[in-house]
User: What shape does this take?
Amino acid sequence: MNPQVESAAPAPVPASVSGSAPEVSPQQAGPEASAPRSPLLSVRDLGISYGASKRNPKLVVEGVTFDIFPGETLGLVGESGSGKSTTGRAVLRLLDVAAGSIAFDGVDITSFGRSTPLSYRRDVQAVFQDPSMSLNPRQPVHMALTAALKRHGIGDAASRRAKVHEAFDLVGLQAAHLNRYPAELSGGQQQRVAIARALVLDPKLVICDEAVSALDLSTQSQIINLLSDLQEELGMSYLFIAHDLGIVRHISDRIAVMRTGRLVELATAHDLFEHPQHAYTRRLLGASPAEHPEGRVERRAQRTAYAKLHAEGLIEP
Ligand SMILES: Nc1ncnc2c1ncn2[C@@H]1O[C@H](COP(=O)(O)OP(=O)(O)OP(=O)(O)O)[C@@H](O)[C@H]1O
Assistant: This one.
């Protein structure tokens, strides 16, 4: 966990947070106590609808407002179906937004419509739940990274090879793993490849959507520690989406709580766990992780399908 958390003091609350998301606590502490910094990502009044039509404008995400600061991890929690992944996919521009804006480095990227700038696609990377679904089973794993570099027009063959080696090294994989096929690696090693694929593009923000949920407990903690170490070394931000509150608490500076498509509370990790303000947060903290309603499996399948398409560069919003 970033050591900034415990000492964090409230940062200025943007007018649109309190104005457009009245359910959110005004205790929207930023990661820095003094000198306010500009957010890396500013999501304002986000509204998302699947299969939007004028006759059926039902929003599954509504009025969602939050910032992510450079080097910060924002955890996003909530029960199954509350809209966490939908929010993450909107930030990744895999989904159109029905309302609101998403600004990155001060630029409203929703204003570009479907032609999201390539620089944004490079700066914002994702690590999804099931690495076996997002790696091509017919290719040695190094090709996932090489393909990402090629897609972004980065380097020549020699410098790409060097970058791929460097990324593998960063995530604790060895050169011997480069030519393995996904099925020849463990789940944890596959997830390291997925992390390396994100990192090889030097992202500023990584969306981790249930990135450790499919792993066994000891591998989960290895990957969480790896993500923390990488953040300390490289300084990127994370949007960390998960249903396991223990993990989210461990890795997050601040945590946002979603309920039925809306943010109900946003606070430092410490404050959220020690002094939860919203009744729903208190209920969530008291709930067993096993209490996920049905429907989770189906949505997981949808999401891994998304992950695969996205990883192969086949999805353009
Ligand atoms: N592809 C889709 N088409 C239609 N509705 C969808 C689709 N994906 C998600 N939804 C709906 O959007 C709402 C939010 O789903 P989302 O997957 O974002 O929730 P979540 O909080 O990430 O849940 P989980 O933790 O189970 O993944 C749910 O009501 C869900 O049924």
Summary: The domain at 14-311 is CATH 3.40.50.300 (Rossmann fold). The chain has a mean pLDDT of 83. The first helix runs from residue 4 to 7. Residues 50, 60, 78, 80-86, 243, 296, 299, 302 surround adenosine-5'-triphosphate (CB under 6 Å).
